[in-house]
Amino acid sequence: MRHSTGEKWFYSLNYVLLLLLGIGTVVPFLYIAAVSLTPLTEVMRHGGFILFPTQITFAAYEQIFTESLIPRSLLNTVIVTLLGTLFGLLLTMAMGFGLARKEVPGRRIYIFLVVFTILFNGGIIPTYLVVKNLGLINSLLALFVPTLISPFHLLIAKTFMEQLPGELEDAAVIDGAGEAGYFVRVVLPLSLPLLATLGLFNAVYYWNLYFPGLLYITKADLFPLQVALQQLVTVPEPAVAAEAVALPPETMKMAGVVVSTLPIVIVYPFLQKYFVKGATLGAVKG
């Protein structure tokens, strides 16, 4: 297919812009990884900016996991992410299944209440008072229980289930399955792309959880990863300050960023095919 001169210039400009965008996206990650793996002398020799380490050391990572809050906060975040994602998906799919059934009494009222919470949030202070009165302050439950069900995710799940053919349920009933059996054996397997998409959304949210950790947690051993990382970045720990000559705080900061980012970077490619397909599920019918 032939292109005019104007089209060639247009495509060339697009390629250049995409190349610059790609470089601008990759360079910060290269810098963070390189600084975390490079000895202080090499970092200083390059003026503090290095993209490819000439000498590799894991001293920053060793100190991160032995003399900081990162190991404990990493465990806390893993627990919160797993439980929040699992129970969030279970409750979202179960409630979406109920709202998708037109014979449910008051269905429109429930849907209106769900949409209402998207438009008008309860606010920080009322939410804090609810969490406090439930006795969840300084508990990992406070980090995921209040946000188990996302109204947006719920509407997507409801709309997706409304699009399932009614013949599937008829066939399940003929085979002797009740509503629970139909939900578990038919709806959930067909919802795998949707589950992967919502699961990825939930996992990324809980993994990057920061503000609820500041709001509900005051004990250092219960901090989520992002709060511990923020303290590492803004407040050098005594162990780091004592060895500032051999191991500068900047090196540990970069190591902490790598530790907090790497798990999501590893998991995402495996779920990408489901994410691309599931991102449009439930978007056809409102």
From TrEMBL:
The chain crosses the membrane at residues 12-34, 74-97, 109-130, 136-156, 186-207, 254-271. PANTHER family: ABC TRANSPORTER PERMEASE PROTEIN MG189-RELATED-RELATED, POLYGALACTURONAN_RHAMNOGALACTURONAN TRANSPORT SYSTEM PERMEASE PROTEIN YTCP. InterPro entries: MetI-like (IPR000515), MetI-like_sf (IPR035906). GO terms for cellular component: plasma membrane. The keyword Metal-binding does not apply. Belongs to the binding-protein-dependent transport system permease family. It is found in: Cell membrane. GO terms for biological process: transmembrane transport. This is Carbohydrate ABC transporter permease. Keywords: Cell membrane, Membrane, Transmembrane, Transmembrane helix, Transport. Pfam families: BPD_transp_1. Residues 74-271 form the ABC transmembrane type-1 domain. It is a multi-pass membrane protein.
